[in-house]
Specification:
Blueprint: H1 3-8, H2 11-33, H3 66-102, H4 104-118, H5 122-133, H6 137-163, H7 167-174, H8 179-187, H9 192-215, H10 226-233, H11 242-269, H12 271-277
Helix pairs in contact: 2-3, 2-11, 3-4, 3-6, 3-9, 4-6, 5-6, 6-9, 7-8, 9-10, 9-11, 10-11, 11-12
Length: 278
Amino acid sequence: MTFAARFARNRGALFGLVILWVIIGMAILAPIVFPESPWRMVQRPFLPPFEVDGFWLGTDTMGRNVAAGLMHGAWVSLLIGLISTSVALLIGVPLGAIAGFYGGWLDDALMRFTEFFQTIPNFALAIVLVAIMQPSVTSIVLAIAIVSWPPVARLVRAEFMTLRHREYVEAARLVGQTNTQIILRQILPNTLSPIIVLASLMVATAILLESSLSFLGLGDPNTMSWGYMIGAARTVIRQAWWLSFIPGVAILLTVLALNLVGEGLDDALNPKLARERR
């Protein structure tokens, strides 16, 4: 059975993939559907959804189009989620690979370094880092990447420790391959399955972290995001509930979709484990 067929057997994963494609479509079409800035005041404030043509989701406290903010915010959330996860993988994978392959004092030193970051709550550390570097998309990406790489390093280390004594690794040593070649050509390709699954879940976590930072006023002041929309509307939730509800649902659906896709990838990449669960 092919990878696509195994993935398609998980209906939850297919549902998540559909939601994810819709959100990606929103992000791509945002500049076309709403070419003007989402910060522009275009109507009277607190316009309810569908009351006026062209304002499907109403307006916010400043008379800005909520639909425009939602679609432009999708681009920001996905971009930050993907880039911060990529940076976290670039940090965590090499450290975990070196620690797991060589072991000994190098493994101990790298794991103590990893544990140092894990002793500090992720959200608290992200707040401190963004506050120090000044709120911007770059600082948010770096902060999320810094708090996200330790689980990657631990996962890769565990996989390398399991695989480094396999027969094909010993055979590679006998034919004269260097340690770097063995790591990159023999072991790392066999660890991609759990890394891919973890990465899909990390994107969801990154989106939640970005939304939380923006909610607290630590988002990029020049970029519209879902977290900012919720934070800006929290003081008027009784008067205009939809201003918090709509971006909140968007965050919920995005995170749910990514988790469902991650579960589907896990089943497709690890068919034996999927059969055991059933």
